[in-house]
Automatic annotation (TrEMBL):
Its cofactor is Mg(2+). Substrate binds at D133, G134, S135, S136, N226, Y253, K283. It is found in: Cytoplasm. It comes from Dawidia cretensis. Its EC number is 3.1.3.11. One of its GO terms (molecular function) is fructose 1,6-bisphosphate 1-phosphatase activity. This is Fructose-1,6-bisphosphatase class 1.
């Protein structure tokens, strides 16, 4: 690690992708890397700031979940048929409000909203969001997250939002990432120029660069699968699970996609939510869960498939479409794919 010439104590990393100092604020990092934002007109970077701001508000509520009345369900269900938790609804309000206020977003797609919102403004971007990921873990104080994808609208600004604007392939994302509300709160994102992670410092109310140029190990020894549904897995999936055990891999499953993904990105591993009897098309949603993490994974040197095809190449047909999801270290995703292909 080089030492920056003008401040011997500040570690700095020079790489072909970025020039940063650990401890750079998110705002400063965005400013310094404006050229990484497609079209570089400031709108996309402002969108990212709006997402960061909303995540700070949600973080504040998550941190005191046991003290304030945001535990439990609200009594309604979302399109996926999940019981909406109070924090699902609250997080959806916070992100919708922040993204609507900014004016850069022209449309919003959310797990917690049946159809997309056309903001009828001059916003050039379409945001797809899972406001609160890992809802089953809210009341038990286990890490949860937020997942977001940003697309550029295709229809002309000032005209109604069309299906083509909200049903884009993952390869068309211009930015994507997640927020992890864990022992610390982190925001991790990519704009197609590598992946960077920022840790939230609550007393200063700022995100600081803590994980520059994140790389996912090519191989790993961790597998994350809900084995409780294993009886209804396909034969190739059962075979891959047995292969993981024969290799003496470690089983780790938090039940919050963002948290399982983040761990495997740092340590090397694979997360799989395959097709099951209960969810024959898989459980996770292509547009606001899988596309974002697939973009981050690939940008960090990992891979993401539905068992056979690249997630980012899939063309969605409906907003809340589900898919089987295999994501993580390249060699592990390839191995699982080979076993699928062999069947
Ligand atoms: O309880 P299961 O079937 O293992 O499913 C857990 C998965 O479902 C999810 O909770 C779905 O996400 P939401 O909480 O946003 O609906 C993922 O975070 C998690 O990986
Ligand atoms: Mg989710
Ligand atoms: Mg959710």
């Amino acid at each position: 690690m080089q030492r920056s010439p003008n401040n011997a104590n500040t570690p700095s990393i020079e790489s072909s992708r970025i020039a940063v100092s650990i401890g750079t604020t998110l705002d400063r990092f965005i400013k310094n890397n404006q050229d990484q934002f497609a079209y570089a007109s400031g709108e996309l970077s402002q969108l990212l700031r709006d997402i960061a701001l909303a995540s700070k508000v949600v973080n504040r509520e998550v941190n005191k979940a046991g003290l304030i009345d945001i535990m439990g369900a609200v009594g309604s269900q979302n399109t996926a048929g999940d019981d909406q938790q109070k924090l699902d609804v609250l997080a959806n309000i916070r992100f919708t409000r922040a993204l609507t206020k900014g004016g850069e977003a022209g449309a919003l797609v959310s797990e917690e909203m049946d159809s997309f919102i056309d903001l009828s403004n001059d916003g050039k971007y379409v945001i797809a969001i899972d406001p609160l990921d890992g809802s089953s873990n809210i009341d038990v104080n286990v890490s949860i997250g937020t997942i977001f994808s940003v697309y550029r609208r295709k229809s002309p600004v000032g005209t109604p939002i069309q299906e083509e604007d909200v049903l884009q392939t993952g390869d068309e994302q211009v930015a994507a990432g997640y927020v992890l509300y864990g022992s610390s709160t982190m925001l991790v994102y990519t704009t197609g120029h590598g992946v960077n992670g920022f840790t939230y410092e609550p007393t200063l109310g700022e995100y600081f660069l803590s994980h520059p140029d994140m790389r996912m190990p090519m191989d790993g020894k961790i597998y994350s699968v809900n084995e409780g549904s294993a009886n209804s897995f396909s034969e190739p999936m059962k075979a891959y699970l047995q292969y993981c055990k024969d290799q003496r891999y470690t089983a780790r499953y938090i039940g919050s996609l963002v948290a399982d993904f983040h761990r495997n990105m740092l340590k090397g591993g694979i997360y799989i939510y395959p097709a099951t009897a209960k969810d024959p098309k898989g459980k996770l949603r292509l547009i606001y869960e899988c596309n974002a993490l697939a973009f981050v994974a690939e940008q960090a040197g990992g891979a993401a498939t539905n068992g056979r095809e690249r997630i980012l190449s899939l063309t969605p047909e409906t907003l809340h479409q589900r898919t089987a999801f295999y994501v993580g270290s390249q060699k592990m995703v390839e191995k699982a794919g080979e076993m699928e292909e062999a069947s």
